[in-house]
Amino acid sequence: MLIGLVSLLWLVISLVGYYYTHKPFAIEFVTAALTGLWRLLVAAGIISLSGGFGAWLLSKRTNFPALTGLAIQAALGSGIIGLAVLFLGVTIGFQPLYFSIFGLFLLILLRRHILVWLSQWTQFSLLFNNGLALLLSLAIGMALFWTLATALAPPLYFDALTYHLALPRSYLLNGDMAYDPHNIFWGMPQQTEMLFTFAMALAGTEAATTLGWGFGVLTLVGLLGYINEKINLTAGWVAVVCLLGGGSLVTSLSSGYTEWLVMLYGLGMIAAIDTWRNTSKRGYLILAAALAGFALGTKYTAGQLILIGLVIVAGDGMRQQ
Question: What residues does each domain of the chain span?
Answer without folding.
Answer: 27-121+131-320
